[in-house]
Amino acid sequence: MGKMESKAAKEIIQIYTMIKKGFTLVEMMLVVVLIGLLSGVGAGFAHGTLKSLQVKKAARDFLLAAKFARITAIEQQQICAIEINREENLFNVVIEVNDPQTGEILQVPINNQFFKPVKFPSGVVFEEIQINNLGAPLIREESDVILPIFFYPNGTTQASVVQIGDGRSHFTISTNPATGRTKLFSGTAEQAETGVIDLDVAEYGEYR
Q1: Which of 62, 76, 100, 184 is 20 to 30 A removed from 70 (C-alpha atoms)?
Q2: Is 0.70 surpassed by the pTM of this model?
């Protein structure tokens, strides 16, 4: 038997001896405890990351809806609005049209290949909503369930600040009344004046 064969045989015997000897009860319990701890930490981290991603997606969906509402108002030359439903944590885009029979102005929800109503996943909510009302910033009362943000045919909009979050992660969307531009940043509504990042040029992507 050569040296290589002899060395391999010794290693096989050594491994067999270790397997035959096995683990002590204390060693097995320690391994089980460590696996449990690692699993718990991993699961908690994954859950927190998932919730944060859900908040970010909800905020980005709202941003895109605002951009869509502005473009629709300009193209259709009709007032368009994002309607926020705080009770059900959803929002949709509506457009004002004239009823040819009655002459009344109707708000028709948009539901097509370009936009569909968005409902937040469980735990993600509208944490704060501020909408400019006749020149004065107004923090809406809890009794106000349906809150509209209007976009006008000339490209302007109501000034608004909308904070979306889950209690830990927060994203805020703001609209500029003069330009109709919508911006999003990571943080609370209190930081709206100092931490604004325009998603047209920022890390979240380009939405033109």
Answers
A1: 100
A2: no
